[in-house]
Amino acid sequence: MNAAEFTFVVWVASFLAGLLGALTGLGGAAILVPVLTLWFHVHIHYAAGAALVSVIATSSGAAAAYVKEGYTNIRIGMFLEIATTIGAVVGAYLATKTPVEGIAIILAVVLLYSGYVSGRAQPEHPEGIRPDPIAVTLRMPGSYPTPEGLRWYQVSAVKTGFGLMFGAGTLSGLLGIGSGAVKVLALDQAMKLPFKVSTTTSNFMIGVTAAASAGVYLHRGYIDPSLAMPVMLGVVAGSFLGAKLLARAKTQWLRRVFAVVIIVMAIELIFNALTGRL
Amino acid sequence: MSFTWTDEKTEQVIGNLLRAGVVLSAIVVLAGGILYLAHHGRTHADYHVFKGQPEALRDVPGIASGAMKLDSRSIIQFGLLLLIITPIARVAFSAVSFALEKDRMYVVVSLIVLAVLIYGLAGS
Is residue A157 part of a domain? Predict the structure, then answer.
């Protein structure tokens, strides 16, 4: 394949990843790294670099809309970004020391977990939670718009959430993905935020987390401009269309399909890592 | 005239800032991409072996000077750099808006995050 053909095919794949990512809320980057390495034979470092850059683009684009709608809790996001950005820098350094097979297997485990999470039903607004005094000191409790007006919520387990966020940041820096599934785990399972607040706040944090490791990736030469170009432009176009279609799409069905695709990719990654084909 | 800075205003500005950053970056990347394909479209594309990027595409001064010389790959890299800077600008703005709200605790929180981001981009 010459550069023009390669650019076009990678653009189409990235467009589809961005579209599915936006429609399912899982983000396109998690699937882009295995697609680039398994189908396009791109080295996992270059794949992670290109995916990480597109993570910043989709997160920032979506956050622009969510923040204005008032779902995002900016204080919780800012506070936890201390953990995710430090984690991301640590993860980006680990990426330079970890063998390619190790990175592939960790990515596969994260993909399997993301596939599992996306198949589960989530409660809209958790009830009967124990407010954490630290959260009150940090002015974290807030409100979000519902059809019946503003609804208030409490926040629990700030320390646990902070610890999990450090882990999410490390994975993001190591693998070049947004690791939204781990962030949502911290925000809605540990800190008990309402579903819409946790998903939009997670998305808000993803761009800053990715920017922290992108700096390290840039210095290490992981970001190849001619590869990142079609990936970033494809993902941005795809996720823009996905956001437009979201209101009309049957997302429950799509989420199941996407979950299956992710699980197949994960198995293929593990197989290729163990047989030395990466 | 009274002036109060509120969370809602912050949310509006952050939303606009993020959108402008992504759009600007995509335009620069697209322009660099067209130039790249015009010059190198027929060369062989292979990313299977990791070699790392040349020094000139790894740091801010190198990328900026390459882009000034209209080197296509440097222009793309410059667009990607704008994208990386977008969330960093958002955090810097958050620090300012928390200061306007006289929320000292979150000014400190924002500055810690900003320091980690600048370390990632410049210090490592």
Answer: no
Within a domain: residue B117? yes
Instruction: Mark which residues 77-116 of A lie under 8 Å from B by CB.
Output: 78-79, 81-82, 85-86, 88-89, 92-93
Our count of domains for chain A comes to 1
Residue A251 lies inside a defined structural domain of this protein: yes
Query: In this structure, are residues A10 and A234 in contact, taking their beta carbons and an 8 Å threshold?
Result: yes
* Domain contains A145: no
* Test the B interface: residue of A36, A85, A204, A213 with most B CBs within 10 Å: A85
Instruction: Supply A24's token pair.
Output: 């399912």
Q: Are A196 and A113 in contact (CB under 8 A)?
A: no
Look up the ipTM and state it. Answer: 0.90
Quick check: helix, strand or coil at residue A31?
helix
| B1 inside domain | no
Please check whether residue A246 is in contact with residue A255, taking contact to mean a CB–CB distance below 8 angstroms.
no
HEC string for A224-236:
CHHHHHHHHHHHH
- Alpha-carbon distance A42 to A224, whole Å? 11
Question: Residue B63 sits in which domain range?
Answer: 8-40+54-123
User: What is residue A179's three-state secondary structure?
Assistant: coil
pLDDT single digits (tens) B22-74: 999 999 999 999 999 999 988 888 898 898 888 889 988 999 999 999 999 99
Give the distance from residue B82's alpha carbon to the nearest chain A alpha carbon, in angstroms.
10
Report how far Cα B93 is from the mean position of its chain's Cα atoms.
14
Question: What range defines the domain where residue A258 resides?
Answer: 3-73+81-120+166-183+194-274
Asked if residue B46 belongs to a domain, the reply is no
In a domain, B49, yes or no: no
Q: Provide the 10 A C-beta neighbour count for residue B55.
A: 10
B72 sits in the region (left: phi over 0; alpha: psi -120 to 50; else beta) called alpha
Number of structural domains (chain B) is 1
Model confidence pLDDT, tens digit, residues A71-116: 889 999 999 999 999 999 999 999 999 999 999 999 999 999 888 8
The answer to whether the Cα torsion of A270, A178, A213, B116 is positive or negative is negative
